[in-house]
Amino acid sequence: MLLKDEVARKDGYLDCSDNLMRKLIEHTVVADGMPDDAVTVLNFNYTSPYRWLKQRFGDADLVNIHGMLDGESIFGIDGSGNLDDRDILPFTKTYRVLKSARGVPSGSIAYPSQRGGDGLKTSSIVFFGHSLSRADYSYFESIFSTVDLYNGHTSLVFLYSNYAKGVRESEVAKVLALLDHYGSSLGIAGHSNNLAHKLMLEGRLVVREI
Fold this sequence. Notes:
Blueprint: H1 3-9, H2 13-26, E1 40-43, H3 51-56, E2 61-64, H4 93-99, E3 124-128, H5 137-146, E4 155-160, H6 167-184, H7 195-201, E5 205-209
Parallel strand pairs: 1-2, 3-4, 4-5
């Protein structure tokens, strides 16, 4: 069955997705429950649950990086370490996204954690519903580098739905594995393996039920 047929078959799917998007935005670490800057959504799903978001943040950048159900949908492997192999290259998401000419409306998904000349900064990054696996690691690595995660001020908020026993434990394990992998790539002598500890001590790492 096609994904778009599955979505159409489920009554209320888009309403539920739209409501979920609202809850994700409201669960940031901003004191009043709402971001004080622009909102950018990097969506790995193939649907567009954006009605509430467009009403609340008309200038929000909405990026379905791997396409939409009614258009070209991109599947593939992570590009890290594979972009110089001409046999593997066509199967990477990096190649397929670039080949599709799918751009980012604002020109960037993330900004430095300090407000720059353009007045923009990334105060928090909110995750939900992603496996945090290596399949999309290139995206995480790029965003973390842009905000200078180790030395910057950006907070990471990992949200999960408690739909079964052990969900929180599983989410915490995935978060720590992601941060450990990224931290080990930084090459900071004596500090590359303490990224998660640093973020926790600075109040910049949250794992929360939505």
